[in-house]
C-alpha cells in the first residue's frame, strides 16, 4: 500500500514483505510519488473544467483478474467526486467518456496511440504476471476458508412493524450470498443490503434487513451461502452460531479465495456440492 502522507509504499501482508526485496518497495515508491504529483495536476485541471473549487476527489482504479477457465480480464478507470468519469476499453484501444468534460480528456488521451497500446499490454501481460506471482507467495493465506458467524435479531421500529436483521461476520473469502425468504420465497423488494466490508482482521462482514408485519403470521428465514455451504436461520430469534467446514464421507468443501492484492484482484468460484445446514437456535 502507498501512503500519501509518508510517501512510501509498504507491505501490508507478511507474505509480501517476506518475498519481495527492499529495492521493489523503493522502486514503486518512486513511481507512486510521481503518480501522486500527476494526480494533483490533473485534479486542478478537472476543477477548472467543471468550474469547481474547494474539496473534490479524483480516483484511479487499475487491475486484472485471472478467471477459473484460465482467461483474464483487465480494467482501468477514473472517477471524479465518486462518480465514473472515464473508462478504458482495452479491446478497442479507446476511452469511454461519461460527460462532456471527460470527452475533452478522451480526445487528448486517444491521440497517444503508443500509450493506449502500453496500457493494454500492461493489463494483459505484466499485471497477470504479477498476479500469478502474488498468488503463489500468499497461497497459504489467500486459499484459506473461514466460515461466517451469523446472527439473526429483530427490532420493533413502529407499532406492529418489525425489522429483521441477518448479520454475517468473520468470513473469508469475501464472496457470500445472504438474503431473506418469506414462506419459502426470496424477498426481492423492500430488502436493505449492507456492503461486504473488511473487518480489519483479514475477514469480512455484511448484513441484510427486511421490514415485516408480525401480525400476518408469515414465516421468515435468513439464507447464507459461503464456500459451498448453505446456512438457514429462522427469523424472530436472537441467535449466533459458527459453521465449521468439515470433511464428510463422499463430500469435500473446497473454497478458492477472492483476494485483493494491492491494485490486483483475482476471482475464482468455489467448487463442489452445496451443503445445506438448518440451524436451530435457543431462545434468549
UniProtKB/TrEMBL annotation:
<dbReference type="GO" id="GO:0005615">
    <property type="term" value="C:extracellular space"/>
</dbReference>
<dbReference type="InterPro" id="IPR050208">
    <property type="entry name" value="MHC_class-I_related"/>
</dbReference>
<dbReference type="InterPro" id="IPR003006">
    <property type="entry name" value="Ig/MHC_CS"/>
</dbReference>
<dbReference type="GO" id="GO:0009897">
    <property type="term" value="C:external side of plasma membrane"/>
</dbReference>
<dbReference type="GO" id="GO:0005789">
    <property type="term" value="C:endoplasmic reticulum membrane"/>
</dbReference>
<dbReference type="InterPro" id="IPR011161">
    <property type="entry name" value="MHC_I-like_Ag-recog"/>
</dbReference>
<keyword id="KW-0391">Immunity</keyword>
<dbReference type="GO" id="GO:0006955">
    <property type="term" value="P:immune response"/>
</dbReference>
<comment type="similarity">
    <text>Belongs to the MHC class I family.</text>
</comment>
<dbReference type="Pfam" id="PF00129">
    <property type="entry name" value="MHC_I"/>
</dbReference>
<protein>
    <submittedName>
        <fullName>Major histocompatibility complex, class I-related</fullName>
    </submittedName>
</protein>
<dbReference type="InterPro" id="IPR003597">
    <property type="entry name" value="Ig_C1-set"/>
</dbReference>
<dbReference type="InterPro" id="IPR013783">
    <property type="entry name" value="Ig-like_fold"/>
</dbReference>
<dbReference type="GO" id="GO:0002474">
    <property type="term" value="P:antigen processing and presentation of peptide antigen via MHC class I"/>
</dbReference>
<dbReference type="GO" id="GO:0031901">
    <property type="term" value="C:early endosome membrane"/>
</dbReference>
<dbReference type="InterPro" id="IPR001039">
    <property type="entry name" value="MHC_I_a_a1/a2"/>
</dbReference>
<feature type="transmembrane region" description="Helical">
    <location>
        <begin position="242"/>
        <end position="266"/>
    </location>
</feature>
<dbReference type="Pfam" id="PF07654">
    <property type="entry name" value="C1-set"/>
</dbReference>
<keyword id="KW-0732">Signal</keyword>
<dbReference type="InterPro" id="IPR007110">
    <property type="entry name" value="Ig-like_dom"/>
</dbReference>
<feature type="domain" description="Ig-like">
    <location>
        <begin position="148"/>
        <end position="227"/>
    </location>
</feature>
<keyword id="KW-0325">Glycoprotein</keyword>
<keyword id="KW-1015">Disulfide bond</keyword>
<keyword id="KW-1133">Transmembrane helix</keyword>
<dbReference type="GO" id="GO:0031902">
    <property type="term" value="C:late endosome membrane"/>
</dbReference>
<dbReference type="GO" id="GO:0042612">
    <property type="term" value="C:MHC class I protein complex"/>
</dbReference>
<dbReference type="GO" id="GO:0000139">
    <property type="term" value="C:Golgi membrane"/>
</dbReference>
<dbReference type="InterPro" id="IPR037055">
    <property type="entry name" value="MHC_I-like_Ag-recog_sf"/>
</dbReference>
<keyword id="KW-0472">Membrane</keyword>
<dbReference type="InterPro" id="IPR036179">
    <property type="entry name" value="Ig-like_dom_sf"/>
</dbReference>
<keyword id="KW-0812">Transmembrane</keyword>
<dbReference type="InterPro" id="IPR011162">
    <property type="entry name" value="MHC_I/II-like_Ag-recog"/>
</dbReference>
<keyword id="KW-0490">MHC I</keyword>
